[in-house]
Specification:
Blueprint: E1 2-10, E2 16-23, E3 29-33, E4 39-45, E5 51-53, H1 62-65, E6 74-75, E7 81-82, E8 86-89, E9 92-95, E10 104-105, E11 118-125, E12 128-137, E13 148-156, E14 161-170, E15 179-180, E16 197-200, E17 202-208, E18 214-220, E19 231-232, H2 242-247, E20 251-256, E21 262-269, E22 274-280, E23 284-288, E24 298-299, E25 303-304, E26 312-316, E27 338-347
Length: about 350
């Protein structure tokens, strides 16, 4: 078990970005960056004991600095989309950054994903190394009200679970929706994820417009969006159903069954024998299958990024939830403490 710090790179303004690698007694490891509090690498064994990379990422800093690169990053203040970049709190309308056409996406032009986070603390507990990052978002950043003090604690447990605990407080009422944007490939970076079997605990999915903004209506998952019993990601990804066609694959917010901390999804790669089990206390989860990737950038220096190279399971509030009373999303108030937990557990 160990925690090691290294220099990962330097930003154009001279700021040094550090990497921190957590390693447990099984040999599994997670590497994190101070830039965006990102998960840069997850190394897990397969059924033969061979270790491989579980997430899409890069071995150097520059690709992470590109606008729109959210790989492994903490997303905020608001993960996902806000229609027209507008919402109302206590009768006052706020206009936040419109960085995806007329809509707001993933915190704006420079969201939490592209901020430098400070190391708050590191610790060892029950053979599980952990590290906590902190970022203080000033009042008015990207148009959001209130000074928001945010921290995220990453723990690599002795049984190969990556635990993400989010905490925040604000000086004024504000909307906050945090998630992590890891792109998973349980078979490693050498192949796409269309053969990965995915199961999601959800009966409904949010209906969206052509620009992926929820209408407020929840639809039955029956058809291409139905992962209740488990199926390969590729089985219906080219089905031609309207929700799939307009996104070029899966990019949908599922209403998760139950409440409180519970298991909400399971992914399985048959060739490697790896399972990924997802636990969260969030109401929704965005399934995204990397539909638009087609770039010269490579996954950890191995192969070029192509569509469906990986998948995201982003636990969060519904997109544009503050503009839909039916999604039951309230602003964070100064006398409240924000706390949520998501766990990604790797098993064989």
């Amino acid at each position: 078990m160990s925690l090691t710090e290294k220099k990962f790179g330097t930003l154009s303004d001279g700021t040094v970005i550090s990497s921190y690698t957590l390693k447990n007694t099984n040999g599994a490891s997670v590497t994190l960056l101070s830039f965006g509090a990102r998960v840069q690498s997850i190394q897990m064994p397969d059924k033969r004991g061979n270790f491989d990379e579980m997430i899409m990422g890069h071995n150097e800093l520059p690709p992470y600095t590109h606008r729109g690169n959210y790989q492994g990053a903490i997303i905020g203040r608001w993960a996902n989309r806000i229609k027209d970049g507008q919402f109302v709190i206590n009768g006052e309308q706020y206009q936040v950054t419109q960085n995806e056409g007329k809509n707001h996406l993933h915190g704006g032009n420079i969201g939490f994903s592209h901020r430098v986070w400070k190391l708050k603390c590191s610790d060892y507990h029950d053979d599980s190394p952990s590290i906590t990052f902190r970022y203080c978002s000033p009042d008015g950043e990207e148009g959001f009200p209130g000074k928001c003090d945010v921290s995220v604690c990453y723990t690599l447990s002795a049984d190969n679970a990556l635990i993400m605990e989010y905490h925040a407080k604000t000086t004024a009422p504000t909307y906050l929706n945090l998630t992590n944007h890891c792109y998973f490939h349980l078979g490693g970076p050498q192949r796409d994820v269309l053969s990965t079997v995915l199961q999601i605990e959800a009966d409904e999915v949010a209906e969206v417009t052509s620009d992926l903004i929820p209408t407020g209506k929840l639809l039955s998952v029956e058809g291409a969006c139905d992962f209740r019993s488990g199926k390969t990601i590729g089985q219906d990804i080219r089905s031609g159903e309207p929700l799939i066609r307009q996104a070029g694959g899966y990019d949908h917010a599922y209403k998760l069954k139950g409440s409180g901390m519970r298991r909400v999804a399971n992914a399985f790669d048959q060739k490697s024998g790896r399972h990924l089990r997802v636990f969260t206390d969030r109401p929704s989860m965005q399934l995204y299958t990397a539909n638009s990737f087609d770039t010269e950038e490579s996954d950890h220096g191995q192969i070029p990024l192509k569509p469906h190279h990986a998948f995201c399971l982003e636990t969060q509030e519904f997109p544009d939830a503050m503009n839909h009373p039916e999604f039951c999303c309230s602003p964070l108030l100064p006398n409240e403490k924000f706390h949520t937990t998501t766990i990604y557990k790797f098993e064989l």
